[in-house]
């Protein structure tokens, strides 16, 4: 089997078979990561550039580690120390990098659609590591992998996305993926942080009551309040947001069941998620980080052309 696309620009472009193949391949790579020797020669002599125009910790380190575990040659591009800081265009930057015989580009950019633009103009495989408020496909994939690993399935699972839905590319990738795989999705947060069109356009339910949402769901994927993307005041204060929509220990203890708690990071502790929830046994946040390496190994491998099924 092979992927139906030569790039990973978004979950929106993947088929159900594509998603299943990535998750199955990630399971195999996670087994590799449990071995004493965690490195495999799968991408030896493949050169990958990590092109990050936005700050990142988990995603960048996860991709770098995945590339090293696959024995790829890696170049890390820092915008602040490059010609991009002098006004060089994105396309010129990438063309210069490709002239050095780069095979794949992992890209994060503040502009929605930037990876799609590159995919139309250069021959290398493009992997979207987050573009604006559009998508973050590998985060959506690792979230799904973590849910399936913990609960054994995706189909029929009740998943709540809680928080800043309007500005979250993680939310969009989760919605696309979970809908494709047969899960049920509800979004929850202040009305000012939930797009008015989301129910009709994306087939999800909307609930503005955090208690009702937590009673309904099997998994609560709590999203960060993205103040850096908000160009106007959308709620009164962080303290009042925590009172109204923060996921707290008392809220979870009053449920009639135990739910799984997730967060893509970085966590604003005491805002969208309290520390005694983030660090509790219900939380699989650290497992998400661990699974991110296996999922990104799978994506890199399947898009590299080294998969025997592609030859």
How is the topology of this model organized?
Elements: H1 16-33, E1 47-52, H2 58-69, E2 73-78, H3 90-98, E3 104-109, H4 114-119, E4 125-131, H5 137-151, E5 158-162, H6 169-180, E6 184-188, H7 198-202, E7 205-207, H8 210-216, E8 219-222, H9 238-245, H10 249-253, E9 260-262, H11 275-278, H12 285-303
Parallel strand pairs: 1-2, 1-3, 3-4, 5-6, 5-8, 6-7, 8-9
Helix pairs in contact: 1-5, 1-12, 2-12, 5-6, 5-12
Query: What kind of sheet is the major sheet?
Result: 5 strands, parallel
Shape: globular
Tally of DSSP β-strands: 9
Average predicted confidence as pLDDT: 91
CATH class of the largest domain: Alpha Beta
Q: Kindly report how far apart the N and C termini lie.
A: 11 Å
Computed Rg = 19 Å
CATH topology of the largest domain: Rossmann fold
User: How large is the share of residues in beta strands?
Assistant: 5-15%
Strand order of the largest sheet: 7-6-5-8-9
From the 3D coordinates, which CATH architecture of the largest domain would you assign?
3-Layer(aba) Sandwich
Helix percentage: 25-40%
CATH superfamily caption of the largest domain: Aspartate/ornithine carbamoyltransferase
Overall description:
With 311 residues, the chain is an alpha/beta fold. The chain folds into two domains: 11-135 and 290-310, Aspartate/ornithine carbamoyltransferase (Rossmann fold); 137-284, Rossmann fold. It is 39% helix and 14% strand. The chain contains twelve helices and nine strands. The strands form two sheets. A five-stranded parallel β-sheet has the order 7-6-5-8-9. The mean pLDDT is 91.
């Amino acid at each position: 089997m092979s992927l139906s696309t030569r790039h990973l620009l978004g979950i929106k472009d993947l088929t159900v078979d594509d998603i299943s193949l990535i998750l199955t391949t990630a399971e195999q790579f996670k087994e590799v990561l449990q071995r004493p020797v965690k490195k495999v020669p799968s991408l030896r002599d493949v050169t990958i550039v990590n092109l990050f125009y936005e700050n990142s910790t988990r995603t960048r380190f996860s991709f770098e580690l995945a590339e090293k575990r696959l024995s790829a040659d890696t170049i890390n591009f820092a915008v602040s120390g490059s010609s991009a800081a002098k006004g060089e265009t994105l396309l010129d930057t990438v063309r210069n990098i490709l002239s050095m015989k780069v095979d794949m580009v992992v890209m994060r950019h503040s502009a929605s659609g930037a990876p799609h633009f590159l995919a139309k103009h250069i021959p290398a495989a493009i992997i979207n590591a987050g573009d604006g408020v559009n998508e973050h496909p590998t985060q959506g994939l690792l979230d799904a992998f973590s849910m399936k690993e913990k609960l054994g399935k995706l189909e029929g699972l009740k998943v709540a996305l809680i928080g800043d839905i309007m500005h979250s590319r993680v939310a969009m990738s989760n919605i696309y993926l979970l809908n494709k795989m047969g899960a049920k999705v509800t979004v929850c947060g202040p009305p000012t942080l939930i797009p008015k069109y989301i129910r009709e356009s994306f087939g999800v339910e909307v609930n503005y009551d955090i208690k009702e949402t937590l009673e309904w769901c099997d998994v609560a994927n709590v999203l960060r309040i993205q103040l850096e993307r908000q160009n106007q005041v959308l709620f009164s204060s962080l303290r009042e947001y925590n009172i109204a929509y923060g996921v707290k220990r008392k809220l979870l203890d009053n449920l009639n069941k135990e739910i799984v708690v997730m967060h893509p990071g970085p966590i604003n502790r005491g805002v969208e998620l309290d520390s005694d929830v983030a660090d509790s046994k219900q939380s699989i946040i650290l497992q998400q980080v661990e699974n991110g390496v296996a999922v990104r190994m799978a994506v890199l491998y399947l898009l590299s052309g080294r998969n025997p099924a592609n030859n």
